Amino acid sequence: MTLDLFEPAALTQKQRVNSALGEDLPPHHPGVYTMYDRHDQVLYVGKAKDLQQRITSYRYSKSKKTQRMVAHLERISYEVCNTETDAILLENLLIRSLRPPFNHANKKPETYYYISTARRGNKREFRLSMRIPDDYPNVYGCFKGHLKTRKGLGALLKLLYVFNRPIRSAAYLPSQLLNRITPQKFQLELNSQTGVLVDQFLKGSSSLLADELESSVMGITFKDRFTENYFDNELEQLRMFYTLGPNRNFRMKEELGLESVLINQDEIDDLLAIIKKS
Hints:
With about 280 residues, the chain is an alpha+beta fold. It folds into 2 domains: about 15-100, GIY-YIG endonuclease, CATH 3.40.1440.10; about 110-275, no CATH class. The protein has 11 helices and 7 strands. The strands form 2 sheets. A 4-stranded antiparallel sheet has the order 6-4-5-7, covered by helices on one side. A 3-stranded antiparallel sheet has the order 2-1-3. α4 packs across α11, α5 (about 145-165) crosses α8 and α9 runs parallel beside α10.
């Protein structure tokens, strides 16, 4: 959609909002409202705990963004919802499908990943995928965000490698782990105790694995300052991934009373919005 930002505002802000609303004011109920321009193109989708209070507030908004939007406003429609949570879910659905120009949150398509593990002989294989694989008994996720998830898994693999096989330089890491893009499959030797910690970490129930890996790295005398900084950065990436990935999923399931082990890709945005509201 192309907006004519130089279209003259023949009506005042208050007049435009009143004209777009028509004669009947929305009720004092939760719901979702949609704003349209004169070509009947969607400008903005919003949710409200009180539809009337929220929509009429646009009459006097001092926000430059809101004023630019109201300058194109032709009509407003709304849908009453039973609860504020229902309004959040409907708003997310409409934003993702309509992609209004004045909405930013939840409009861009995201990448979602699952991390899976399976025993392969005396090693454990890690796999990164956008779908749930059939031949892996342990699947975790889904985790939102391409860069965050790939960097997080990459840090986990590097630190587990050093945990089992202390090295004095980052140059001694396997070439697959030194690539800019984290491999979609990689195998490591893990004892059963470390395997339990990995399971708890990826489920988001405990960060003890990160503590153990940090303690291990701190106990190594590295060859150079570059390697020290390199693994410090990997530890930081690992903890960031845990906070924004596994642990956030774990807390979300606890707070919302979800019984499923996995969170599906088409559910996570709605669930994150509900948690943010609460």
